[in-house]
Structure formats: C-alpha cells, structure tokens
Amino acid sequence: MSTPLWVTRRGNQSRASRVQQRRRRARAAVVLARVLALAAVAFSPAAPVVAASAGRVANGLPAPFETLVALILMTVAVVTVVELAAAAASRLTRQLDGRRADPSPGDAESEPWLPGATRPAVLGLAVLLSGAIVLGAAATVGPWWWLVSAAALATGALGAIHLSPALVAAVLGARPLGDPATAARLSALSRAAGVPIAAIDEVASGERPEPTAFVAGLGRHRRIFLSSVIVREWQPGEIDVVVAHELGHHRRGDLWRSLLVDTAVIGGGLAVAAIAASAGVVSAPSAGVVALPGIAWVAGSFWVVSAPLRHAQSRHQERQADAFALRLTGQVEAFTSVIRRLGKIHVADEQPTPLARWMTSRHPTVSERLRAADRFRQSRS
Question: Left (φ > 0), alpha (ψ -120 to 50) or beta: where does 330 sit?
C-alpha cells in the first residue's frame, strides 16, 4: 500500500515549517473571520438595526453627545461581533491543527509590548476615534471626507508614536534599567548612532518570557525598552547588537517611511470606500453611524490586500537595520548568535513558500540574515 502524498510531504517538512504553517492558517482564519463578520454586519439589516437602537438610546441628548453616544454603541456592537468571530476562528483552527500537528509554544501573534487583555480595548478605542474622524470629516468637507480622514488619521498615528514611550511604560510598568554597566554602554551606543535617548528602561517579561527590545518615541523623547529576560540571560554583545538594530530604524527614518506608506494605503482604502459610497454599494458617512461598518469593511479589505507591499517594505527596512547594527557594533558573532537565538525561539521557517513570504513575512529568513553577516565579515577581512 503506497503512502499518501500529503503524508510524505508532511514527513519531509521540518518542525519549523509545520509550526509556521499552523500559525499562517490561524492568522488567515482570523482575518477571514473578521472580514466576513464585518461584512455580515455591514451588508445586512444588522447595521440599520444597531444604528436605530443607538439613536433611540441617544435621543434627546445635545447634538454632539447624541452622535458620540450613538458612535460608542455602534463601535461596541461591531467590535464585539468581529472579535467573537475572530476568537471562534482561532479556537477552531487550533482544535483542528491539534489533532494532526505537533504542539509548540508561541503560537499567539501579538505586539511584543501589548498584553492580551489590553488588545480589545485598544482596538475599540482605535475604531471609535476613526469613526469620529470620518463622521466629522464628512460633516465639514463633504465629498472630500476620505482625504481629510486619511490626513487626520496620519496625524493621530504620529501623535501616538510621540506618546508611545509614556504609554508603553504605563502599560508594562517599566522601571529604569538597574544594570549601570549596560545602561552606560547603550547610552554610548545611542550617541554613536546619532539617535538621542531620554531613558533606558526594563520591563517585565510576562507569562511568556520572550525577548523584547525596541526603541519607542521621537526626537529626544525616545526610550529604549528591554525585557527582563534579555537583561538577565543575554550576553553584552548580543544586547548591543539588538539595540543597535532598533536604533538603526530610527537613524534611517524607517518610522517616517512606514507612516508614509501606511497613510497612502489608508487613504487609498478610504478613497475606494468613497467610490463605493458614490456607487451606492455602501452608505455614505453623511448617513451617520449606520455607514461606518461598510466603510470599515472596504477600507479594511484594502489594507489586507496591500499586505505584500507593506511586508516588502518591512523586509527591506529589516535588512538595512541589520547592516546598520553590524557597521555600528562590528560584532558579527554576537549578531549571528542573536539571529539564531531568535530563530529558535520563534521557530522560524527557513523555506516559506513565495505566497507565504509575500503575505506574512515582515522579516528576512534566518539564513538570509546570516548570509548578510558572512558578507559583512568577508568585506572587513
């Protein structure tokens, strides 16, 4: 009896490939669930029913507060439906994969500094502010609401970047780095990089002690954040290299480039939503909160489709930040040690398919980064 082809293929895969395939399936299922749930609200009687109910609750309040209360109620309803669908999709894919794939830690995909319990609140606040901007722009500039909204959202993102050091410190309970030698070394590194730093903080690693190091903020308000596991377990050269990489993003202006690309994508999505509203596919924002689910669905779908562009830019920036870290520190062995360590922790896939690479990979593969380090070593010798 011959072995089924799918069994042979799975047997030839590395554990990392299987783990990453599981993660990609889970992420794809969550994205699809969110898109479908939002479409179900936007293109069914659900949106008018929720909008009418919110209007009745807010009826009689002064005009600004009436709109605000209706917007809050619509946001809570939509975000709840979408996140419940995402949670169900995530649970289902994990159950199905658990029957035929080896278990592994680290399947959760999240921002390194954002606790899981905080994410729904942050998402709801972002949706609420975005909806308020769209409604306000429609009331003031009419058909150009999409352009003004994109500019306002970019300004808000810039403000959030500026405030991010204080927000991160508050959320994670950061404290000044208690190792004077490391603090002095990283301060000297930031000066050599030409990136002013206001403080160097340590944050608790949390339930999953994954290494986290990043530089938050703009100008002289920037702060370096290191997770406790890095401070405790990493060698000085490894800490220097990973911080130099993050400083490289700031030295090269990658935050500004990313903000520019993201603003263009958001503006494009809102422009498509405006065209769809003109064609009667979705309601125009002049109709009030009832239009927001449809606009969010069009703009959100545009964001998902733009993933290859955004990820290609991210991979380019990561390569340049790697090169900056190598030039700044000259510590090739520490760099290769960090890349191998992170690849092992995150169970990195060395052979992603072209589709997976373009749709999900924000970093070069481990082998690509190690080859870059070898080229740097050879160029120096």
Answer: left
